[in-house]
Write a structure and sequence with these properties.
This protein has 229 residues and is α+β, with helices and mostly antiparallel strands. It has three domains: 54 residues, RNA-binding S4 domain (Structural Genomics Hypothetical 15.5 Kd Protein In mrcA-pckA Intergenic Region, Chain A); 91 residues, Alpha-Beta Plaits, CATH 3.30.70.580; 73 residues, Alpha-L RNA-binding motif (Alpha-Beta Plaits), CATH 3.30.70.1560. Helix content is 19%, strand content 30%. The strands form four sheets. Strands 7, 8, 9, 10, 13, 14, 15, 16 and 17 form a nine-stranded mixed sheet that branches. A four-stranded antiparallel sheet has the order 3-2-5-6. β13 and β14 form a beta hairpin. α1 packs across α2. The relative contact order is 0.16.
């Protein structure tokens, strides 16, 4: 099925219809390596569309990674006017929604999408997508092997995890569930207080090369890899 080029660019979240028309007339858009400057060109699913040499990705396959800053709510808006992650998300991606939630004082890897299936694949415990957190504790961690066996975190609920690395008070922990405050509660069950927490990895995606508050659009194959999980 073919779509007008300017409509396709709008669907990719690259701006308003007029803004995308200007991208075309300015000569910044190529289809299959051919520069397109006239309106009305048609593109199909197999066409290679680039802007300034960079490939476009339709909105359903757009996955944005953010290095969340401390003090930002994981929400699209807040009735009390508090700062949210949307403040750091580029306006062009404001139609995307955060996948899951990080506490306001938790930093690190946060993903955004409008793909419902992708969101469900990453957040639902039945898919067992691992998440890795770096926790800074109030004292050196000495309970090696305990999380692997499971700990009680709330009433009769148990949680398990894999300790990947220990550096005195800094522990890298992998968990496969996203229950509220699960990492903090796991450490609290053993008498530790988490003084700082950052998520460093979700599935195969690692937080690399982004300063606090920065964002990056990931490649389409990153989405496809999650959907095949």
């Amino acid at each position: 099925m073919s779509t007008r080029l300017q409509k396709y660019l709008v669907i990719c979240g690259l701006g308003s219809r007029r803004g995308c028309e200007e991208l075309i007339t300015s000569g910044r858009v190529k289809v299959n390596s051919v520069k397109i400057t006239e309106q009305g060109a048609m593109v199909g699913e197999c066409d290679d569309v680039t802007i300034d040499g960079k490939p476009t990705i339709s909105c359903e396959f757009q996955l944005v990674m953010m290095n969340k800053r401390n003090g930002k709510l994981t929400a699209r808006s807040d009735p009390y006017g508090r700062a949210t992650v949307m403040d750091d998300l580029p306006t062009i991606y404001h139609y995307l929604n955060p996948i899951g939630r990080l506490d306001v004082d938790t930093t690190g890897l946060l993903l955004f999408t409008i793909n419902g299936e992708l969101n469900q694949r990453i957040t639902h415990p039945s898919h067992s997508i691992p998440k890795v957190y770096m926790a800074t504790l109030n004292k050196p961690f000495t309970h090696t092997g305990v999380f692997e066996q499971g700990v009680n975190i709330r009433e009769a609920r148990r949680a398990t995890g894999i300790v990947l690395n220990i550096q005195q008070t800094i522990v890298h922990l992998e968990v496969k569930e996203g229950r509220n405050h699960v990492v903090k509660r796991m450490f609290a069950s053993l008498g530790y207080k988490v003084t700082a927490l950052s998520r460093t990895k979700v599935g195969h995606i690692e937080l690399e090369g982004l300063e606090a508050g920065e964002c990056m659009l990931l490649e389409k194959d990153e989405v496809e890899r999650f959907l095949k999980t």
